């Protein structure tokens, strides 16, 4: 059974105007504002008290907008690197690992930091809603939400591109309260998002909200909380691969709270985020110094997504331009958008396994590759305090240890289906 605890006390705040307001239960936007802005949780406790590891992700509950704890969570773990650090000549490299690595004390059964989002989003849901949660995903997020919602009896509709369903593996079968639909082969994450938006027009469904959901961002921010409370101060650099950039936004927000805490320093980590060549929409906008995303042909984008190994980094419409989004985070904290090829990422993943002792996901290998290049190019110095956010790993090991099963789709949609078609299908599923 989950441990009892008091719901976290917080209000919500518009990033654009600073206006504070109460959470009405599933508030995703600032009420009465003209311009699109993210909202942010403002916690009653200014100083974070970390609970013992048995609480899992909820050891950071002081800074999570949750009403309850769910069963089965594991928090990210941070440790000082020796193998990779020595190979690169770095003296202060810390690795924050989310995935399956029992010896390090982290046992995320889906091997991805997306579990940090799924547990906190589920913890934000209160019992008064009878609606079905809707999540669109390129793979890892769907796997995490399916596992967490299945184990905690939360009704869930997943929308995933058909070409990505090999990511929906599990160490135990998923219960019937979780239903999977897909967009046909050749579609991408944006098409899955579009399908989820259509479903959310129907009364029985509620949008998870993506980057707009404070629980998702603050759940992801536990990677930074793990690092800083373990190290004792805020790092100089933060390395992570990004598709939407929500994890980097979360890291920035956690950084701001840690400055207010007063015990860990007053600096802002430079956000060294990375993308997988040739799919580079965030990189291209940042290099053009543009708040707006640059035009990108749909068919070209789909072809580029087919080429990249890190499929989870394939968001065509990330929360980059919105107030409080990635553009603002990077302008405030400093940093850069870096790139890595499939070949560079593959080599980096092998190097990580050789030097640190565990396999990592392609997206984490992209981040590692850009750290390697940053060291070579003199972008970072050998004594800089660096946090490398390994957002997924241990999958090969878990699959050696356990037999896995796959979640099968219940319907395949064409790209851009009609509301009537979606409604007819949903009647058969829920």
Can you describe what's shown?
By secondary structure, this protein is α/β, with parallel strands linked by helices. The protein has a domain at 77-109 and 216-399: Rossmann fold. Helix content is 34%, strand content 17%. The protein has 14 helices and 18 strands. The chain has helices at residues 83-88, 114-124, 140-151, 189-199, 214-220, 222-231, 246-261, 281-287, 298-307, 326-333, 342-356, 362-376, 395-401, 419-429, and strands at 10-14, 20-21, 39-43, 77-80, 93-97, 100-101, 106-107, 132-136, 156-161, 169-170, 178-183, 205-207, 237-241, 270-276, 335-340, 386-390, 405-406, 411-413. The strands form 5 sheets. A 6-stranded mixed β-sheet has the order 4-5-16-13-14-15, with helices on both faces. A hairpin with a 4-residue loop joins strand 6 and strand 7. The longest helix has 16 residues, at 246-261. The mean pLDDT is 95.
Note the topology:
Layout: E1 10-14, E2 20-21, E3 39-43, E4 77-80, H1 83-88, E5 93-97, E6 100-101, E7 106-107, H2 114-124, E8 132-136, H3 140-151, E9 156-161, E10 169-170, E11 178-183, H4 189-199, E12 205-207, H5 214-220, H6 222-231, E13 237-241, H7 246-261, E14 270-276, H8 281-287, H9 298-307, H10 326-333, E15 335-340, H11 342-356, H12 362-376, E16 386-390, H13 395-401, E17 405-406, E18 411-413, H14 419-429
Parallel strand pairs: 5-16, 8-9, 8-12, 9-11, 11-18, 13-14, 13-16, 14-15
Antiparallel strand pairs: 1-2, 1-3, 4-5, 6-7, 10-17
Helix pairs in contact: 2-3, 2-5, 5-7, 6-7, 7-10, 11-12
